[in-house]
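Retro notes (design track)

What went well: tokenization of the new backbones is finally stable.
What didn't: we kept losing track of which sequence belonged to which structure.
Fix going forward: every design gets posted as structure first, then sequence, in one message. First example under the new rule, 360 residues:
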């Protein structure tokens, strides 16, 4: 097949944190199905030259005409940008694969994880496919596999979310806090930490412009997202609503508590999962070990279990601490770690694009 017969791929938001991770993923593939790869960004980034698979590619400014001839357009941009431009890409004949939250719960837009529901890529009335939130994605390969085998009925999830989930400002804030606190004697009293940070000129709290409502260094913050009804956060509701849509279980019982932790990259989740059928740890482990995108690391006697350091920079999700729940029948406890910039964002988006290309 000649290059002109291969699909054209566009990456919108090519110079952002997820966009650059996307380029790394494309570069790491042994082969790609694309005849051309276009890099697209805002006017201030247009004209930059980036390497993609060893070739210099000039970044184009985001305009309607850049989608002419594009078959698949991946969007790694804020919600409001996707909401405006993904439909424009679709109008120009491209399939838009969107990593933002703009279309996730639109009933006419499939929410796709290739390991779970790849058949949905062809059911796209608006020409748009949505990528789930990074927290939901971190557990979907595992929960999808277990659901197929045992019939998932309920999930109770506690997430431990990295600073990079708040974008580059989150990473910058954590590093600034760590630098300010280095070598200082800071007790557990929040006033101690906050005083040191404020004295060092570091922003503290959302009102002061921090991405986090409290100090993150030497701390954990039981909050991610924005406030919704009855005290729930937007991140917690995403876990519930997106899990139901991806797994195709409209009445799935889900409760989530999202916690921000002082880790730069990789989300971790503690999961309490109840199934319709009897399930043992051995049976669950066999199912998980058979999944190509999952690494099982589960030997507590040897001190082996998933940590963010095991998953960061890698494509698989790492699963361990697999136990039968005490006092709860047909229920497993698991601990899962997944790089929120790769599988939680860029990798899944790219895998969806590959799935679309394979489906023609």
């Amino acid at each position: 097949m000649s290059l002109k017969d291969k699909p054209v791929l566009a990456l919108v938001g090519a110079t952002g944190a997820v966009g650059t991770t996307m380029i790394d993923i494309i570069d790491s593939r042994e082969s790609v199905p694309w005849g051309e790869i276009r890099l697209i960004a805002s006017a201030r980034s247009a004209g930059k030259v980036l390497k993609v698979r060893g070739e210099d590619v000039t970044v184009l400014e985001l305009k309607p005409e850049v989608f002419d001839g594009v078959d698949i357009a991946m969007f790694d941009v804020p919600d409001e940008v996707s909401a405006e431009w993904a439909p424009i890409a679709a109008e120009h004949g491209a399939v838009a694969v969107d990593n933002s939250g703009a279309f996730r719960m639109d009933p006419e837009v499939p929410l796709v994880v290739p390991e779970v529901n790849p058949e949905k890529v062809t059911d796209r009335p608006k020409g748009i496919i949505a990528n789930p939130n990074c927290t939901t994605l971190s557990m979907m390969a595992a929960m999808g596999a277990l659901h197929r085998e045992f019939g998932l009925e309920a999930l109770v999830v506690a997430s431990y979310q990295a600073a990079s989930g708040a974008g580059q400002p989150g990473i910058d804030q954590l590093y600034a806090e760590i630098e300010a606190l280095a070598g200082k004697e800071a007790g557990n009293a929040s006033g101690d930490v906050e005083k040191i940070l404020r004295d060092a000129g570091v922003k503290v709290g959302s009102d002061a412009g921090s991405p986090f409502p409290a100090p993150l260094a030497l701390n954990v913050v039981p909050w991610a997202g924005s406030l919704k009804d009855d005290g729930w956060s937007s991140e917690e509701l995403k876990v519930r609503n997106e899990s139901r849509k991806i797994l195709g279980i409209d009445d799935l019982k889900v409760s989530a508590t999202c916690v921000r932790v002082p880790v730069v990259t990789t989300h971790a989740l503690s999961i309490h999962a109840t199934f319709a059928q009897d399930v043992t740890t051995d049976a669950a482990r066999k199912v998980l070990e058979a999944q190509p995108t999952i690494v099982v690391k589960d030997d507590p006697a040897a001190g082996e279990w998933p940590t963010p350091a095991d998953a960061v920079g890698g494509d698989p999700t790492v699963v361990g601490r697999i136990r039968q729940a005490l006092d709860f029948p047909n229920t497993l406890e698991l601990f899962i770690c997944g790089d929120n910039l790769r599988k939680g964002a860029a990798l899944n988006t790219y895998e969806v694009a590959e799935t679309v290309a394979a489906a023609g």
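Added context from the reviewer: The mean pLDDT is 95.
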